[in-house]
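// run 5 | inverse folding | seed 20
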C-alpha cells in the first residue's frame, strides 16, 4: 500500500489498507470533521497519468455521485492527493457477492432477496439515465445486515444527461465509440460483445447471468477462454437450472433476462424488481424482500402473504408473518356515508378519531368518531380538513381546503379538540404536522411557483418544481419524512427524508402512486402506501436507512392516515374512478366515453368528433396509456405509453409526454399509420404541450434544472425552443392566428402573452381562478370555467368588452352527489364539449394487528 497509517488526504486520515485492484487502492479512513469512518479509493500515482484510467475513475465518481439509493454505494466526496485523484464513500462491512458465492448456490429465498435489491438499485440508476455496463458478482457487495450495494460505475454510460445544477450547460455524455468492447466476459450482453451501442437493457442481461449463478452455483456462460465465453453468450443458451426446486416463474424471469435480443428482455429494471417482489409476496415460500428483524414496535418479522377478504366495503384482511403463522388482522369500519375522506388522525386519548370528509357533495368538514358506535359527530368548526393533532390535543386544520387533482390547499389554522374558534396562521398551505412537543409546525406550501417544506415555519428544508405531500415530523423531531412527487399534480413519487440541516435522502423511489405516510412511534420505520403500477396502493414500510418491506397488499386503493403509539392504524379504503362525459351539438343526452378505470380527457378535435385521453390507473399500465376515441362511441385505440397532451389541427398526430422518463420526454404518436417520433430534448423537462394552429409549432410548458416551469415555443422542424413567458407561468389557449397565448401566472391571474414580443397583459372579464379552455374561431370570445364552482359552468368571455355569459351549465343529478368535474374541453365550433368526472367514495377503518 502506498499510503501509510496517519496520512492525511484533506480532512480524511488513513487508518488501514483494505485492498487494491486495477482501478485503485482502497483504504479505511476517518473523517476528522464528522468523526465517522469512511472508505477512500485512490488512483495510484503510476496510473494518474493514464488519461483512460483517470477518465474512468472520474466517471465512477460522477455516475455514483449522481445517485442516492440504499442499494447503490454512496459517494461522499472527491479530491486529489499529490496529483492522484481520490473519492470518498461509505465504509461497507461484509463481502462481495463473488465471495458469497464461493460456497456454491444460494437458496432461492436469499437469491430473490439479493436480486430484487439489485434490481431496485439498477432501476434508480436507469431512472437517472445511468447504465452500469459492468455488472458482475465482484461489483455487488452484501453487507452484514443483508443489504446489497452496487459498486464500481467506472464503465457507466449516461444515456440522457441532465443539466448540471446551477448551470445552463449539460453534463458530459459518458459514451463509448461503436465497436469498442467494454465489460467482463461471462456477464456481458450480446450487444456489448459485438461492440454495438448498449442501453440499460445490457444491465438486465448481466443481471440475469448473476441471478442464474446465484441459483445454479455456476456461471451462465463460461468457456475455456474469454473468446469462447463471448461466443457462448452470442450463440448458446445458459445451462438449465437442473436439480433445483425452483418456482417456474423464477426460471421464466431468468430466461427473460437472458434473451439475446434486447427487445425481448425485460424493458425496465423496475418491472423486473416488481416481478421478483411478486414471487416473495404471493404464492411463494419466500419472505418479503429486504425484510429485517426489528425490535420494539412491530418486532414480529415481515409479511409473507396477504389475502383480502372482500365483504361489504372490504371488511377484513389476512396478514401472515415469516414464521408461518397467519394471524387475522382486525378491521373495524368507522364511516358509512357517501363521499371522499381527505384525512384522518388519532386524538391523544387513542379512542377518538378526527377526520375530514366531503359527504354527499358538501364541502370538506370535520367529524369525530369512536370505534364503539357507527355514527360520526360533526365538529363545531368551519368547513375544514384535519392535518395534524398535537399531544396536548391542539389541531392543525386547513380552512376552506380545495383540491387541484391530488393537491389540496387552504388556510392553516389552530384549534383545540375541546372546542373554541380556530386561529388562522398562514394562507396557501397544503400540508402541516406538529413537532413531537407541539411547539412548532412543519408546513408545505407553494411560493412563487415552487413547492417547499418548512420546519419550523419560515425555515426552508426542501424545495421542488414538483410537489410535496404527507410531511410528517419524526418522533425525535430531528427529521421530516415526506413524499416527493416530480410532476405536479401527478401522484407518482418517492419516500424521502430531510434533516434539520436540509440534507435530503430518498428512501424508496419510483412508485406509480404514492400517498399516505406516518412514522412508527419508536421512529424506526416510516409506513406509507404506494403502488408499483396504477393506483392500487399497498401498505409498505422503510427504515430511515432505506430497508424496505411489504406490510399489506390488497386489491383496492389504500391510503394510510395515522399510526397510534400502541400500533393501531387508521387507513382509508378508496373506491375512486375517473371517466369522461361527452355532449354533442344539438343533443341533450350525455354519452359516457370512459374506457378503462382512470380515463382522463386531454383534448377534443375542432369538429368534436375525436377525443384524446389517457389511462392512468391499473388498466393503463405502469407507464400510462395514450388513446384516441371517436365521440360516436367507437372503441378506443391505444397509441402508446405516456400522458396525452394535444391533437394536431389535422388530427393526424397526438402529442404526449413520457412520465416515466427523467426528464419527461415529448413524443408524437400517429393517430393512423406511421411511426412514433421523439422530439429533441434540449435539456427541458416537459410538463404540458399543445399545437399551434399552423401545425408546425408547439407550445410547451417545461422546466430546467434549478428553474420553475415557463412557456416555450418549439418548432417541429428543429432548433432550440424559445421562452415566451417568465418563470412560474402555465399555458391556457392559443388564438387562431397563433400570435397570442393565454397563460396563468403563479398567483392564478389569467394573462394574454404575446408570442413574438411584449409583456403579458390582463384579459378583461377573466379573474383569478378562471381556467381558460380555448378561443372561438374568430378570436372574439374565450371559453373558460372555474374548477371549484358548483354547479359547473362554462363561460364565454368577450375579450374586447370583458362581458361574460354562461355558455353551458353541467347539471349533475342527485345520484352524482360528490362527483368532481375536471377537466372541461370545448370543440372549436362551440357545438360539442367533453368533461372529465371523478367519483370518490371512501371508508375509514381502524386496523389492529398489522406488523
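// decoded
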Amino acid at each position: 500500500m502506498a499510503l501509510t497509517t496517519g496520512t492525511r488526504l484533506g480532512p480524511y486520515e488513513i487508518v488501514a489498507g483494505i485492498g487494491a485492484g486495477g482501478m485503485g487502492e482502497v483504504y479505511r479512513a476517518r473523517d476528522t470533521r464528522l468523526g465517522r469512518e469512511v472508505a477512500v479509493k485512490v488512483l495510484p500515482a503510476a496510473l494518474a497519468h493514464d488519461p483512460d484510467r483517470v477518465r474512468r475513475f472520474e466517471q465512477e465518481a460522477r455516475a455514483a455521485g449522481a445517485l442516492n439509493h440504499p442499494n447503490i454505494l454512496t459517494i461522499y466526496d472527491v479530491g486529489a492527493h499529490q496529483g492522484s485523484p481520490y473519492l470518498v464513500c461509505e465504509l461497507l462491512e461484509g463481502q462481495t457477492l463473488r465471495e458469497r458465492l464461493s460456497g456454491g448456490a444460494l437458496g432461492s429465498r436469499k437469491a430473490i432477496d439479493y436480486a430484487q435489491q439489485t434490481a431496485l438499485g439498477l432501476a434508480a440508476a436507469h431512472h437517472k439515465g445511468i447504465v452500469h455496463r459492468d455488472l458482475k458478482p465482484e461489483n455487488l457487495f452484501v453487507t452484514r445486515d443483508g443489504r446489497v450495494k452496487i459498486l464500481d460505475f467506472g464503465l457507466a454510460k449516461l444515456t440522457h444527461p441532465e443539466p448540471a445544477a446551477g448551470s445552463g450547460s449539460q453534463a458530459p455524455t459518458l459514451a463509448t465509440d461503436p465497436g469498442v468492447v467494454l465489460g467482463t466476459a461471462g456477464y456481458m450482453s450480446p450487444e456489448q460483445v459485438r461492440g454495438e451501442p448498449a442501453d440499460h437493457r445490457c444491465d438486465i442481461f448481466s443481471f440475469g447471468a448473476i441471478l442464474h449463478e446465484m441459483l445454479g452455483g455456476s456461471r451462465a456462460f463460461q468457456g475455456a477462454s474469454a473468446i469462447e465465453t463471448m461466443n457462448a453468450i452470442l450463440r448458446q443458451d445458459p445451462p438449465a437450472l437442473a436439480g433445483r426446486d425452483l418456482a417456474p416463474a423464477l426460471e421464466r424471469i431468468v430466461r427473460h433476462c437472458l434473451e439475446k435480443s434486447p427487445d425481448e428482455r425485460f424493458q425496465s429494471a423496475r418491472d423486473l424488481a416488481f416481478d421478483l417482489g411478486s414471487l416473495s409476496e404471493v404464492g411463494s415460500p419466500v419472505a418479503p424482500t429486504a425484510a429485517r428483524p426489528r425490535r420494539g414496535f412491530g418486532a414480529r418479522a415481515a409479511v409473507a402473504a396477504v389475502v383480502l377478504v372482500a365483504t361489504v366495503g372490504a371488511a377484513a384482511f389476512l396478514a401472515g408473518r415469516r414464521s408461518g403463522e397467519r394471524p387475522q388482522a382486525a378491521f373495524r369500519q368507522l364511516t358509512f356515508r357517501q363521499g371522499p375522506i381527505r384525512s384522518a388522525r388519532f386524538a391523544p386519548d387513542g379512542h377518538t378519531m378526527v377526520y375530514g370528509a366531503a359527504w354527499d357533495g358538501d364541502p370538506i368538514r370535520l367529524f369525530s368518531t369512536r370505534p364503539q358506535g357507527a355514527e360520526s359527530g360533526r365538529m363545531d368548526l368551519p368547513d375544514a380538513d384535519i392535518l395534524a393533532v398535537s399531544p396536548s390535543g391542539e389541531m392543525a386544520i386547513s380552512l376552506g381546503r380545495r383540491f387541484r387533482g391530488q393537491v389540496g390547499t387552504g388556510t392553516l389554522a389552530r384549534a383545540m379538540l375541546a372546542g373554541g374558534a380556530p386561529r388562522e396562521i398562514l394562507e396557501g398551505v397544503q400540508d402541516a404536522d406538529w413537532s413531537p412537543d407541539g411547539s412548532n409546525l412543519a408546513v408545505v406550501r407553494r411560493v412563487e411557483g415552487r413547492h417547499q417544506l418548512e420546519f419550523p415555519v419560515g425555515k426552508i428544508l426542501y424545495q421542488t418544481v414538483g410537489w410535496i405531500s404527507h410531511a410528517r415530523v419524526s418522533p425525535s423531531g430531528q427529521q421530516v419524512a415526506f413524499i416527493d412527487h416530480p410532476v405536479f399534480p401527478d401522484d407518482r413519487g418517492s419516500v424521502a427524508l430531510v434533516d434539520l440541516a436540509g440534507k435530503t435522502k430518498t428512501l424508496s423511489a419510483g412508485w406509480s402512486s404514492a400517498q399516505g405516510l406516518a412514522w412508527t412511534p419508536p421512529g424506526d420505520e416510516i409506513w406509507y402506501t404506494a403502488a408499483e403500477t396504477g393506483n392500487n396502493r399497498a401498505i409498505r414500510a422503510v427504515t430511515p436507512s432505506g430497508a424496505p418491506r411489504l406490510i399489506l397488499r390488497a386489491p383496492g386503493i389504500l391510503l394510510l392516515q395515522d399510526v397510534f403509539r400502541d400500533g393501531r392504524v387508521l387507513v382509508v379504503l378508496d373506491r375512486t374512478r375517473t371517466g369522461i362525459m361527452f355532449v354533442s351539438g344539438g343533443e341533450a343526452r350525455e354519452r359516457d366515453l370512459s374506457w378503462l378505470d382512470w380515463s382522463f380527457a386531454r383534448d377534443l378535435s375542432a369538429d368534436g368528433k375525436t377525443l384524446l385521453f389517457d389511462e392512468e390507473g391499473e388498466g393503463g399500465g405502469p407507464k400510462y396509456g395514450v388513446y384516441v376515441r371517436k365521440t360516436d362511441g367507437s372503441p378506443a385505440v391505444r397509441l402508446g405509453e405516456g400522458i396525452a397532451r394535444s391533437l394536431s389541427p389535422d388530427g393526424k398526430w397526438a402529442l404526449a409526454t413520457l412520465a416515466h422518463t427523467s426528464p419527461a420526454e415529448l413524443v408524437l404518436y400517429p393517430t393512423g399509420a406511421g411511426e412514433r417520433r421523439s422530439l429533441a430534448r434540449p435539456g427541458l423537462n416537459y410538463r404540458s404541450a399543445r399545437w399551434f394552429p399552423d401545425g408546425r409549432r408547439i407550445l410547451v410548458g417545461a422546466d430546467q434544472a434549478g428553474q420553475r416551469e415557463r412557456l416555450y415555443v418549439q418548432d417541429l422542424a428543429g432548433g432550440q425552443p424559445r421562452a415566451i413567458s417568465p418563470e412560474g407561468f402555465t399555458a391556457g389557449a392559443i388564438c387562431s392566428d397563433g400570435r397570442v397565448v393565454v397563460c396563468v401566472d403563479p398567483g392564478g391571474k389569467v394573462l394574454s402573452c404575446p408570442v413574438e414580443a411584449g409583456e403579458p397583459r390582463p384579459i378583461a372579464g377573466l379573474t383569478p381562478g378562471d381556467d381558460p379552455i380555448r378561443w372561438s374561431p374568430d378570436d372574439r370570445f374565450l371559453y373558460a370555467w372555474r374548477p371549484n364552482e358548483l354547479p359547473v359552468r362554462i363561460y364565454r368571455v368577450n375579450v374586447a368588452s370583458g362581458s361574460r355569459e354562461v355558455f353551458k351549465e353541467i347539471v349533475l343529478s342527485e345520484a352524482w352527489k360528490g362527483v368532481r368535474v375536471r377537466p372541461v374541453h370545448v370543440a372549436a365550433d362551440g357545438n360539442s364539449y367533453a368533461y372529465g368526472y371523478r367519483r370518490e367514495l371512501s371508508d375509514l377503518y381502524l386496523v389492529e394487528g398489522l406488523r
